[in-house]
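User: quick one, sequence for these tokens?
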């Protein structure tokens, strides 16, 4: 997790859930993450191909030059990345995994911005993890932000964290002994049968054309 917004939102969510896979939706207090709200969102699971924005922060909407509320987050991706993101969201809502994505957004003028997206499960009593708390923030704010809308996006990297894992930055308390955060990058290479079997045992999912390397324990 590269961006402070990503780290702070994950830390807040992790503190709320305690020993549970995910906190309840009604435990989220906007005032506790006031400085992050402009970059955060909440998704509602409708079906496998529809994860609708229920809320979307002002900075995120400004970056896209549109109101995102009620839009489907799966719009604006090519076929491969659409399926990959759908699979990741299924891991979040069905298995209570957390996902960190490196993505690129593109305008009609082919201007690009590198962003980091965080997806975290939220539990609804009687429904399971049918909500997703997330953030999406530009790693460097482009000069054209708010003037030219992002029309398409692509996935550059993926990292999954399962409920019993902790990213190493949560354990950094001035100590240099923590292990570095592994990078997961786009790969066209197929996962070997042995690796695929290991993922199946761990309850993980192969994410289409992306190779997902799991980790995060300190």
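Assistant:
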């Amino acid at each position: 997790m590269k961006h402070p917004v990503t780290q702070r939102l994950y830390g807040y969510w992790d503190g709320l859930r305690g020993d549970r896979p995910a906190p309840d939706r009604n435990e989220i207090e906007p005032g506790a993450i006031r400085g992050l709200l402009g970059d955060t969102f909440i998704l509602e699971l409708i079906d496998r191909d529809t994860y609708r924005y229920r809320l979307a922060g002002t900075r995120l909407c400004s970056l896209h030059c549109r109101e995102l509320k009620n839009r489907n987050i799966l719009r604006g991706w090519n076929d491969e990345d659409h399926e990959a993101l759908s699979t990741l969201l299924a891991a979040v809502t069905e298995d209570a995994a957390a996902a960190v994505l490196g993505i690129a957004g593109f305008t009609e003028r082919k201007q690009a911005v590198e962003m980091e997206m965080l997806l975290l499960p939220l539990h609804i009593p009687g429904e399971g993890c049918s909500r997703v708390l997330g953030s999406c923030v530009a790693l460097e704010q482009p000069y054209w932000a708010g003037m030219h809308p992002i029309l398409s996006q692509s996935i550059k990297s993926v990292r999954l964290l399962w409920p019993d894992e902790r990213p190493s930055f949560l354990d950094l308390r001035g100590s240099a002994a923590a292990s570095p955060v592994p990078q997961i990058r786009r790969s066209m290479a197929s996962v070997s049968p042995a690796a695929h079997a290991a993922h199946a045992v761990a309850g993980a999912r192969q994410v289409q054309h992306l190779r997902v390397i799991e980790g995060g324990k300190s």
